[in-house]
Amino acid sequence: MSCNCGDCFDKDVLVLNEGEDGSDGLFGGYSARWIFDTNTAASPASTKMRFNNGTLNLVNQIYLADNNGDGVDHTTFINSLNPFGEFGYVRIFKEDNSTVFWLGEITSITDNATYFTLGVTHIFSNGVFTNSANTVVSFIPISTSNSILNNTFTVGNQQANAWASIGNYSLPANTLTTNGDKIKIKACFSFVGFTSPNGYYKVQVDGADINASLTSYTVMNGVTNAFVEIDFARISNTSARIHLTNNVMDTYLNLSPERGAYETRGALNLTTNPVVFTFDARAAGGAETIYLDQLEVIKY
User: Are residue 159 and residue 128 in the same domain, yes or no?
Assistant: First the structure.
């Protein structure tokens, strides 16, 4: 039996109308909608977000209501971000026009009961955000191929009213071989039994205070933990740049950052000599105890 193609296609044709466009997807990372408020003061109303400056490249704080524009409480999510301070990046853009945007790195997070304050560093922005515009906020984690150095740490605690080492890390010789190589040390302190500011903790490098402007930190009332970060970057074989950040956490899980100035440390020999980081503490001699719970070292 032969087939005449004209017979096959000579039929009534059902024409389907084009359907409506679907709603636009959100940006990558974790994204949610807030309603933009051009007011630059803190404490936005529920569902709203604000910048602390009307000039985008001068924004260094973002205020986000706990409940976003869809009425979803984001308290648990925002409080879950990394307490060591590597909070990642945030990209904010108009839902109907992504060419209006703000991109920056999150440097701190404070929970103010009904809203959050994000400390941020501006990277890039464009356009003008208008009042009451639907705005997408995307949280983007930091992703790196950095290696965790698997070395032996010592951790302990201190109750006595005297300075003592409660932990240390020894950076092996010849670990930082190229100028610009660096490590980041993350240390977690916890404080038990303190009812008044009568405890102290600090970090030393090869027996000397890590930073001349911040010789030690005081355990303040209501503080339960401190997350200390040390950046140690090779300048040359005989010198390195050091920077320390201290993030304290209270019983409400609020984080407050305190940064020290950058400092250059000389008289090193990174090729042949180890560098020893010591974590010291002094309590009041009573029931109060300072613990060093965790150490982690990452090489960049």
Answer: no
